[in-house]
Amino acid sequence: QVQLLESGGGLVQAGGSLRLSCAASGGTFSDYAMGWLRQAPGAEREFVGAISKSGDRAYYSDSVKGRFTISRDNAKNTVYLQMNSLKLEDTAVYYCAAKRGPIFGAWDYWGQGTQVTVSS
Fold this sequence. Notes:
This protein has no helices and eleven strands. By secondary structure, it is an all-beta fold. It has strands at residues 3-7, 10-13, 18-25, 33-39, 46-51, 58-60, 68-73, 78-83, 92-99, 109-110, 114-119. The protein is globular, with a radius of gyration of 13 Å. Strands 2, 4, 5, 6, 9, 10 and 11 form a seven-stranded mixed beta sheet that branches. It has a four-stranded antiparallel beta sheet with strand order 1-3-8-7, with no helix packed on it.
C-alpha cells in the first residue's frame, strides 16, 4: 500500500509560480509511474501530467504544456510539479497519484490533495 502526501499548495497571483511536492511511502517508489491530476469546483477531475518510473519521460495535458514541469527524485521518494505562468483557470485541488502499470490508464493510489488558488 502506497501513501501519498502532497504539499506546497496555496494562494498565488496570476502569472506567478508554485511548486507542489508529493512524498510517497509504503512502497518502492521507483516501481511506480507518478501523476498529477486536478479538480476545479464543479468540474470533473482532469489529467495534468505524468512521469515514468525512471523519470525519463513526462507527459502533459495541452492546457499546461509549456508552463508546468513534472520531475521526480527517486532517492527522496518525491515527485514535483513546478507550475509557472499560473492562470486563473489553474485554480483547483491538485492530487498526486501513483500506478504500477503503464503510465496511461487508471491510477492505483491517490493523495488527499492540495489546494491551489490563483487570484487576479
